[in-house]
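debug: dumping io for the single-chain case to check the tokenizer round-trip. Nothing else runs in this session.
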Amino acid sequence: MQLPNPPHHEPHFIHRIGWMRAAVLGANDGIVSTASLLVGVASASAGRMEILLAGIAGLVAGAMSMAAGEYVSVSSQADTERADLKTEAKALKAMPGEELAELAAIYESRGVSPKTARAVAEELMAENALEAHARDELGISDVAKANPVQAAFSSAASFTVGAALPVLAAFLAPAAHTGTAIVAASLASLAALGMASAQLGGARKIRAVGRIVLWGAGAMAVTALVGRLFGVVV
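debug: decoded output
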């Protein structure tokens, strides 16, 4: 007697997109913006205390800014989603036949035969009409649904962790090599972040590391140039 095949499971990463995007953005911004600020200040021949003060101020201000920015922007997305769902709910109540035909047409456009598309649309609408239209007509699903609090917390926490790395490098480095230590620690942190984000998202590691390190190095180079040219704390 042949035993039934075990359940088939495939690893997917889309369920992580809600918090991962905010976390990677926050960590990247924390490393790059704080390191760039510190390198610019160090290039202006500032002392260790001035460099550390600038770094701590940048860390706190950046974390609060990231939290507020993410919450406001994702809340706007959530408001738009709610407005669309409200409009769709009204349409389902006022024109159920037209909405059924619309849903069936969506499935037909994806290659389903007209008869099957109609049957699928009828069954899904009988189960949960609004959910079916939200997912297949509007592209709104629980996986990618806007979550302002989650995005704000992820961004602020990851920014704080990212910003702490160049500040720690500035604190531990010998005074004569502060700028070099900040750059080295920050580029290594960006490379690690690129590796981690690629691993979590199922992407190619070399490409992820390359782009994040390249942009980070560019930002630090520009602020170092500004600090050296003006010779003042920037």
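debug: round-trip ok. The mean pLDDT is 82.
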